[in-house]
Amino acid sequence: MENQLPVDDAAIYIKNMIQSLLSVNKIRAKMTLMEASTAYQPIEVVEKVIVPSLEQIGEGWTMDKVSLSQVYMSGKICTEILHDIMPQNHTIRKKQLRIAIATLEDFHTLGKQIVKSFLHSSGYEVVDYGNGRSAGDLVSLTIKDKIEVLLISVLMLPSALKVKEVRRKMRENQAAITIVVGGAPFNFDDKLYEEVEADYAGRTVSDAINIIRSIENSRGL
Ligand code: B12
Question: Record's PANTHER family (predicted)?
């Protein structure tokens, strides 16, 4: 009888993805994601392959095993090939909240791009305020555009702490906008979102979608 060990597909895809990204091989990275797409739903490809691969590359960088240019190219390649795994069909919901997304004093853009793309494919229109925005900018834009839910993506702790400034400026302007945060600092510390006075924190794309649905439900939409 053959004695085959169960193969952990995700681990194989991650290994291939990391090798492709570190050798700046966009075609191989794309092929790895396409292969993973035959086994997983698009959201799972993100959570089980893209995010862990980049996390390991980030760890490699902190241990001096990976250069910053490799980190940069890895993020760039993932951003470029993301489109290929995204579901293309979507219908725009008729009644919906006015939602915006941005990175706050932070230029890690991929998480924001992914959350926006998946919300879009779930039928939500999301205004994109771009990257590296200041607290003041975000507050004036959300007030001007009558935004009801502001999604903030940050990957660095100093940026995460700036969310408190967004809340303070909103309060000064009597703006009752729901703030949803996500990104590594909030995953490391599950009380941080309360400290910075956000309303919700999500760890994944699925969390982002579920949070929006629950805000909609609470408002009878
Ligand atoms: C790629 C990368 C870069 C690229 C970014 C390219 C780009 N266009 O995005 C480049 C090279 C530019 C870069 C630069 C820097 N980086 Co960098 N980078 C990374 C790395 C390796 C991957 C990040 C990533 O794209 N992950 C994949 C995405 C999909 O995951 P994600 O953003 O977490 O998003 C998921 C969830 O968090 C969630 N989510 C995200 N946002 C939101 C929002 C909401 C509302 C919700 C609900 C959910 C949600 O959904 C997403 C999908 O699951 C991380 C390592 C890591 N552990 O994350 C380091 C990392 C974030 N970088 C780090 C650092 C220090 C830097 C630099 C300061 C380095 C330097 N000396 O210059 C600069 C700072 C740049 C700046 N001012 O913003 C540190 C941060 C440490 C800290 N705690 O502060 C990390 C953790 C690396 C490390 N291990 O030390 N980086």
Answer: METHIONINE SYNTHASE (PTHR45833:SF1)
